[in-house]
């Protein structure tokens, strides 16, 4: 059983007439004989809407007790048991009362669709998940009932129910929407003209974007080569903070403005540990971006602005979305921040959007000293304090006499400061310089290296010991913190990697691209060979770097077993990165093995399909070919018989039967041979430029005179086709159309130009074909409906599509307005660029 179809009436605000339009459509379908029921419709006390329920079957609702009140909800089980053709379900974003199977009504609708029931529903624009923030900013009301955008975008039909703000306010004032006691408050708040205008614009833009998607789908199906501008790729920089969800929704809205927009959310984990993100918040943001149709990426990078820009340029992004900094004003003394740096260095090809949010300037804390390398700035300050600090302190103490004990403590404090800032080596330098200066200027005898008092020797020794101890502790703590931060970043990356691979969502090329992104390499390739002496071959590759024929030629070589290796070019990786790289390499081998198992399964399916074709061919030969042969033999035997004296009329009738049987045999054998050529991929079209009106009349030779009519304009451009294959394809299509057309209504063959394509339409007024069978009728040995076996072996449409695709065209079935079926044969106009080769019927069956 196929999946049901979803039709949604979309409105800008309550009261525009969505439910009324839905009920009107239900009445139209009932009048046409469709089994349509009201599963759940809320009229909200509106008289005109309530009247529209009359005459429609309503499924009783389910009553539930909740918090001392009685509520009614959609009875999903009752609707499934009733199994109508069409079910009306109002308010798609509604939250169900606790106690029913699903938390949201759109989940109930999904179950109905999965059961093969068509659903008509309604939703307002403010209930779409991605528009929650912008609707709140317009109306001041946060919509708690939302529906994922993907649910609405998957609808087979989306119809906008539009009404101007002035007309809607008049309806409100007349009491047609809310009760009289609520009208004034509604007009003064939510239903203000500005609010309604903004919501209406959102609805119009959303529907316009959907129209663009439908147009792109049509162009793709009809292989139109001239397309609109390049697709927008929007990178969202995430910090793991709560503002991430706002940024993702804003990027999703930006992506929807252009045709085919794509959102890529990226979180950059610094190996020095200067950033920390909540794993739970990152998981929520990943789920959100995937629900909105985007992808989530996790990248390691010490320099966050540079890593973000490298990632954006690597994926050919056109826009970057960042949040305003959460740092307080005084914290900008440590640098301009990621957003300002990215905006400054993005260049003319990348647009940077800085989005405000509720966490702006609320602070995120000072960076804590982490990592074995404390950063260039801190190291520079450490060396400055360790080398220049003792000199400046000596000049100060020469002017002020504080005593040797105090002098030692001040030099010790300076050494500790150098250790805290720069680590071990600046502290050692400070201790060495400080001890020399103490000895020369302040330890008797002064201005000499020697020390007269043994107690002063002990003081200097303690000074050096304390300095070294503090510096060592700082250095060890920094190393441990660096290791912990790096292990955390590695575990996050491996967690995301394992999740993708276990879910089967990652192809080998995608995994290699993730490797390249994570380690900032130019290219990544998986090499393999059959034995120790066999040459290396590339199983998969990502990136734009130079190709690598051997692992030894790469900058990084990670073995995977005995005969496989992951090779990366771009730079030499430090040893600490190879642990994560080894995990990536092992996962790449798993993905490659899974791909090969899938290919083996595809080949097995191809063999099974070949066996099915051969079995069907034998059945066709045993029945469909024997029938005309038996008729011919019976007629010939009768004519040769001496026992009966046949009249001239009888002889003519027998000869006519012989001729008809021979023609039928010729047609069947021709189709069988054509199908075998298509299955083996041996059809080689001879493409040349011809006019359709030269070939079409010859294709009508096999049908009764007057059963088909040609309407091909003389101004039609020439097409680049094989004349013989086009004639055979058209002949099969016309014969099939005549077979199913009523006797009093002929078949129409017409043609028109569309961009760089020419469409030939074969229109009949027969019974038509339901949507779920429109692809199945093009499979070999398929007959639609109750056609007898004597009607043919079911190859005509399969052969026609195969010939069309071998010439770079397409063949699809559409409904004829008013009833019937229209075959649309799309051909490449002369001079238009050739389209990519199409798969053979066997390859297309494997893909399924």
From TrEMBL:
Where the record annotates domain Histidine kinase, the positions are: 620-831
What membrane topology does the annotation report for this chain?
Multi-pass membrane protein
The question of whether Transmembrane is a record keyword is answered with yes
Keywords noted in UniProt? ATP-binding, Kinase, Membrane, Nucleotide-binding, Phosphoprotein, Transferase, Transmembrane, Transmembrane helix, Two-component regulatory system
Q: Which InterPro entries match?
A: HATPase_C_sf, HATPase_dom, His_kinase_dom, HisK_dim/P_dom, HisK_dim/P_sf, Histidine_kinase_KdpD, KdpD_sf, KdpD_TM
| Keyword field contains GTP-binding | no
From the UniProt record, which GO molecular function terms apply?
kinase activity
Membrane-traversing stretches: 380-397, 409-437, 457-478
| SMART domains per record | HATPase_c (SM00387), HisKA (SM00388)
Identify the main location: membrane
SUPFAM superfamilies, per database record: Adenine nucleotide alpha hydrolases-like, ATPase domain of HSP90 chaperone/DNA topoisomerase II/histidine kinase, Homodimeric domain of signal transducing histidine kinase
**CDD domains in the cross-refs:** HATPase, HisKA
Q: Which reaction does it catalyse?
A: ATP + protein L-histidine = ADP + protein N-phospho-L-histidine
Tell me where it resides: Cell membrane; Membrane
| Top EC class of this enzyme | transferase
Q: What is this protein called?
A: histidine kinase
Per the UniProt record, the source organism is Streptomyces parvulus
